[in-house]
Design goal:
Blueprint (H helix, E strand, L loop, with lengths): L16 H4 L6 H20 L12 H13 L5 H10 L1 H7 L10 H13 L2 H15 L7 E10 L7 E3 L28 E3 L6 E3 L8 E11 L5 E8 L4 H10 L9 E5 L6 H9 L2 E5 L13 H4 L2 H9 L3 H10 L11 H27 L1
Parallel strand pairs: 1-7, 7-8
Antiparallel strand pairs: 1-5, 2-3, 4-5, 5-6
Helix pairs in contact: 2-7, 7-13
C-alpha cells in the first residue's frame, strides 16, 4: 500500500537526541574522552569568568562546538552556528537541547577570545595527552620532529613597504590592480597590512613564496601521537629552533631519547646541540655533494636509526590531517597567537581521533 505524502510535521517528539544517535557512532568515544578532559579543566574555566553577571556560553559547550568545526571541516563559525541550529547530531555532541536557542556568531567569537587569553588550547592538549599516557599509548624514548607551512590569511597585495604609506589604487575600487614585476620584496623591508606577523616564505627553491607561518610538532614513534606543538614566524632557522625547544621539554623522558627528522635538520650546530642535551639525533643524512653530513656511522650503524627513519614519515599523516580535515592549509585567523591556538587545538583533535582508532583496533 502506498503511503501518504504528508507535509505536516509532528508537534511533539518523544525520542531524545541521546536515543537517536547510534551507540556505535564514531563521535560517542570522542565525546567520552572530551568530557573527561573538560572535567579536569573546570577549575581553570572558573578563573576566566566573573562570579556575577549574565551567564555566557558555557566553555565546555564552546570547546565541543570548536571540535566539531575541526572534525567536520566546517569552514567558518557562521556556518557552524547554522549547522548547530538544525543538526541533531551536532546538538547532542555539544550538549544542547533541541529547544535551546542558537548563539549569535558574534557572541560565540567573543567568547572564543576569552579561551584564547586563558591559553585553554594548550591546557586541553595536555589533558588529552595525559589520557593517552594513562593508557600506555606514548613512547617515552623515541620521537620525531618536523615542521610544515601554514599559509596566512593575507594576500600578496597586502605585502607593502614599511617605510612608505600605501599607494592609493590607480584604477579605483577595493581590489586594485597591482604590478609587482621588477620590485624586490623582502621581509626586512616589507610587511603585510592584513597580518603583520606573517612572513614571506617558500618551502623549497622550486616553489612560490607565500605569506605564511610555520607549524611544528613533536611526535612519539610508538603510535604516532603528537606530544608537543609550536607555531612560529616563517624564518629559515625556525624549524631547527623549534625542534631544539621541544626536545628540551620532552614530557616524561626518564632516560636518553632519540629524535628523528628529515635532512633539513642535518646540520653540525643542530646535531651537536642535541647531543649536549643527551638526545641522540636520528635525522636523515643530507647527501648533498657540497656538504658533509653531521650524522656518521656511530649513529647509522645501529638498528634503531633505521627504525627511526621509517617511523619519522608518519609525521606527514599528522600534517595531512591538520591541513585537510582541520582546515589549516590556509588559516582563517590572523596573528601568531590566534593561529597558534588553533594549531594546538587541531593537534589535540588529531590525538583524540587517533586514540579512538587505537582503542577500536585493540578491541
Amino acid at each position: 500500500m502506498r503511503g501518504d505524502d504528508q507535509q505536516q510535521s509532528g508537534v511533539f517528539s518523544y525520542i531524545s537526541a541521546e536515543q537517536r544517535v547510534p551507540q556505535n557512532h564514531p563521535l560517542r568515544p570522542l565525546r567520552k574522552m572530551v568530557d573527561a578532559a573538560l572535567k579536569e579543566l573546570s577549575p581553570r574555566f572558573a578563573k576566566l569568568y566573573a562570579k556575577r553577571g549574565r551567564p555566557s556560553i558555557a566553555p565546555e559547550k564552546l570547546l565541543r562546538a570548536l571540535l566539531l568545526q575541526v572534525l567536520y571541516t566546517i569552514r567558518s563559525e557562521r556556518q557552524l552556528m547554522e549547522q548547530l541550529d538544525y543538526n541533531m547530531l551536532y546538538r547532542w555532541f555539544v550538549g544542547l537541547n533541541m529547544d535551546d536557542p542558537m548563539w549569535d556568531v558574534t557572541v560565540f567569537t567573543k567568547n572564543r577570545e576569552r579561551l584564547l587569553k586563558g591559553n585553554i588550547a594548550q591546557a586541553f592538549f595536555q589533558t588529552v595527552l595525559e589520557q593517552a599516557r594513562e593508557q600506555s599509548l606514548l613512547s617515552e624514548e623515541h620521537f620525531t620532529v618536523d615542521g610544515t607551512l601554514i599559509e596566512a590569511w593575507a594576500g600578496q597585495k597586502s605585502f607593502q613597504r614599511k617605510d612608505a604609506p600605501p599607494k592609493p589604487p590607480e584604477d579605483g575600487g577595493s581590489n586594485p590592480t597591482v604590478n609587482f614585476h621588477g620590485e624586490q620584496r623582502r621581509n626586512d623591508t616589507h610587511r603585510s597590512t592584513t597580518d603583520p606577523e606573517a612572513m614571506l616564505y617558500r618551502k623549497s627553491s622550486g616553489s612560490e613564496s607565500k605569506l605564511s607561518y610555520l607549524g611544528h610538532v613533536l611526535m612519539e614513534n610508538r603510535n604516532g601521537l603528537v606530544v608537543d606543538t609550536r607555531l612560529t614566524r616563517a624564518t629559515g632557522t625556525a624549524e631547527r629552533d623549534a625542534a631544539l625547544d621541544m626536545a628540551a621539554r620532552i614530557p616524561g623522558a626518564t632516560r636518553r631519547v632519540t629524535l628523528g627528522g628529515d635532512k633539513n635538520y642535518d646540520t653540525q650546530d643542530f646535531v651537536s646541540k642535541l647531543r649536549e642535551a643527551a638526545v641522540t639525533p636520528h635525522v636523515a643524512q643530507n647527501q648533498h655533494a657540497r656538504r658533509s653530513s653531521a650524522i656518521d656511522a656511530r649513529t647509522t650503524r645501529h638498528a634503531g636509526y633505521a627504525i627511526s627513519q621509517r617511523k619519522r614519515k608518519r609525521v606527514e599523516e599528522i600534517f595531512g590531517w591538520i591541513k585537510t580535515i582541520a582546515g589549516l592549509r590556509k588559516t582563517r585567523h590572523r596573528g601568531k597567537r590566534r593561529v597558534g591556538w588553533m594549531f594546538t587545538f587541531a593537534a589535540a583533535a588529531f590525538n583524540l581521533v587517533r586514540m579512538r582508532n587505537l582503542a577500536q583496533a585493540a578491541a
